[in-house]
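Data availability (excerpt). The following record was deposited with the supplementary files.
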Amino acid sequence: MGIRTMADETQEKEDVGRSSTSSGPVMIKDQYLIDAATPLHEFDTPSAKAYAVSDRRNQDKKLFALICTPALPARINIIKKLRGDEIDGVIHLIEWDTLFWPPMKQEAIILIYNRPLGGSVVGAIAAGDYRMNEYEIQNTFIQPLYRGLKLLSARDISHRAVRADNLYFMDAERTQVVLGDCTSCPPGYDQPIVYETIEGGMCMPGGRPNGAFSDDLYALGITLLILLIGEKNIEGMNDQQLLTSKIETSSFVSLSGRARISPALLEPLRGFTSDDINERWAAEEMDLWLAGKRQTPLQRKPPLKSASAFVFMENEYHNPRVIALAFSKNIEEGAKAIKDEVFAPWIRRSLQMADLSDQIQSLIDVAAEHETTYRGSDEYLVARTCILLDPTAPIRYKNFSCMPHTFGTAMAVELLHKDNMQIPA
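Predicted structure:
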């Protein structure tokens, strides 16, 4: 993933940016004028603010700009790929540049997009101007959004920002739905945990995976469920409770509960939101469904469950992934539980995983031998134990959690956003 910081900009561009903003709007490429006095909050993202744009060469053209947060690394490689490339189902990135932005008193990456004339989907629904119809959702939402994600995948691009509040109607009649911006922050950074896979949701925002087509299809399935039935089944859950529910019951069941869903939509919604990447629908299954060919129903494997519960902080646990999640959130208590003479035998007896029990006992022995070094610390013991209990999860050390391949991005976010390199270093 390409990371751009203000240090990468040339002095010449800085001078041009400042001179263009000493009075009046900021100008990009000697064509697009952006005025800080004309915000368009409907198009804000969690990491970027939106403003109206006028095109000096075409005053009738409706555009808007996103001013990116300087403290976050934008997806520059994706910006370069998307600039000027009109992709069906994806909002069109017209132009971009890095210029001095007066309200921030520093340089910022500025993205120019076509303005959706029908506004945001969730905004139209909230205002009562649009009503979701499960009988029209295939043509209005599923087909164009799936097509957009598939075209992005063909360009080796993962969107990683598919969510209900990042969908827009490009036309005033609200018939043409597109995916919004996906470049103003690291992959998945702005995503609420509900839209992330179990593994992605365990990462801190800056350490989430770059993702692939399957991650976008998962987020699309969650988006469709939320648009159809809302989030009432997960209301009041904190992040840990939501992840626990996904692990123990599946993402689909966590979101859908007992809601009535059209039988015609059950197949893709279950297929998209499968927590097992080997079972999750890909292009082949989706293309067959769009062609009207029914798929073999998914036979979901039940999650691993112990014969007897392990009690931790007055809660009962039956699944090693959920135990690892609980340990990672309560390091001191987690270390005590791991060292307790009950834990390793419980793994062997109740989960019938002798090798895992032996590995955890080995970690406990090493911690005891290196009590005065980092290898004997609670943080180290819990991090290593969590890796053994849930090998597909991110590395979780103290409050730093990321997938191994996203360590560079996570470290950059810590440096730029928090000015704190101690833990990743």
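Summary of structural features: Residues 137-154 form the longest helix (18 residues).
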